[in-house]
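Aim 2 progress update. The chain analyzed this quarter is reproduced below.
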Amino acid sequence: MMLLIAGLVIFLGVHSLRMLAPAWRERMRGQLGEGTWKGLYSLLSLIGLAMVAWGFDLAREQPMLLWSPPTGMRHAASMLTLLAFILVAAAYVPGNHLKARLGHPMVLGVKAWALAHLLATGMLAHLLLFGAFLLWAVANYAISRRRDRREGVVYPPGKALATVITLLLGVAGWAAFAFGLHGLLIGIKPFG
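Predicted structure tokens:
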């Protein structure tokens, strides 16, 4: 469990620098240079992510049940993960309505993904992993939107075609993951 926690601290810590220490982050980017900063950021992110994955896998070998969610929560989790995939797609498809309206759809996608997994399982390892990501995403979204308002950030208006492409990519990604990749990569088949 300690490996999972340490990985979460590293991964989410690196991804929290902009919201918790923006001045220090900018100072370090200036001192190290953009390329070195991005390389170090990426390296620490990958190390943290590897520790999270390995630690979560180890923690699942000795499961500790905290509660038993009702079966219906799995259906809610499926819909929330569909929403999460659409929101993540919205972060990358330029000019869509979701990005224009929400500003930070990737972070909202993480919120939906984490909440979905918390609803579907009651294991301690899941609570640590998805609870940490949910808390991070809630804080990140609030701080990011506040920063947008303070800095007068205006997102370009969305276009219908970009929004349709976003929805199609999100649904296709969700289907590929839900009906195949989740079982292959995680070892759990959400749909049987």
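Residues 1-62 form one domain. The radius of gyration is 18 Å. These observations will guide the mutagenesis experiments scheduled for the next reporting period.
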